[in-house]
Structure formats: C-alpha cells, structure tokens
Amino acid sequence: MAALVPDQRQVYFEDVEVGVPLETPGMTLTEAHVALFAGVAETRRALDPGAVPDLLPLCLSSGLGWRVPQPPLVVLAFMGFEWRFLQPARIGDTIRSRSRTLTKRPMREGGIIVEGREILNQRGEIVQSGRLTLLVARRPRP
Length: 142
Description:
Oligomer: single chain
Distance between the termini: 24 Å
Shape: elongated
Low-confidence stretches: 1-7
Largest sheet: 6 strands, antiparallel
CATH superfamily: Hotdog Thioesterase
Number of helices: 2
Strand content: 35-45%
Structural class: alpha+beta
Number of domains: 1
Mean pLDDT: 89
C-alpha cells in the first residue's frame, strides 16, 4: 500500500500509492478459532462439522494485517465497507489476505483511501472479497 522510507514508523495518506499490492502471511483455521469466535460473538447457531463462521476470516484478516513488514496506516476513521462471501472457509484452510489501494482522494486534514481486499485459501481461491473505505491522516507538519 505504501512506499517505505527508512525508519518510518507510520504510513500517512501521502505515503500511500495506488495499486501497490500487500499480502499478509497465512494462518490455518482451527477448531479453537471457531470456538473462541463463537464465544465472543455469542454465536449459538449450529455449524456443519468443519464449517467456519462467515465473519471469522474477515476478522482474522484484519489481525493478519499487523504481521506485514510495513508500519501501520494512520487511520482516523473506518468509514465503511462492501463485502462478499464467495465460498465457505473450512477448518484446516490456511487463509491470507491480499490488498491494494484502489483510489485515494485528499481532504483538508487527511484523505479518503478505498482499499480492495481479498481473502484467499491455501489453493489461491478467493473466499471473500470487498472494499474498505478509510479516512487516513496526513503527515504532521514539522
């Protein structure tokens, strides 16, 4: 998502480049993930054996974003998202997230970034995809 500057600790609106891909490491979905998610989300609906709740891969992909070799984006507000569930994820699948900035628009104190994101399984199949709209801070003036 951004061109890096040595010793940079945060990524601001000005640093973000349109079209630059960013991919997270993978994570294998386990029964423990499903049980913990069900407890937090208070999900009582019975799932098919081996099924994963639809929102679990989306939640985990956000966490995986902290494991990329890039400083964090300075997000001021999460403005919304459009999301599609294309095929089910199953226990034992290894998911990863791939994203890229689709558009950016400057504003006075920051800018709007629209990010396209895909969640892929171990076979490279897209299981979920969508767009996230973020308000991102401008770099502070010295």
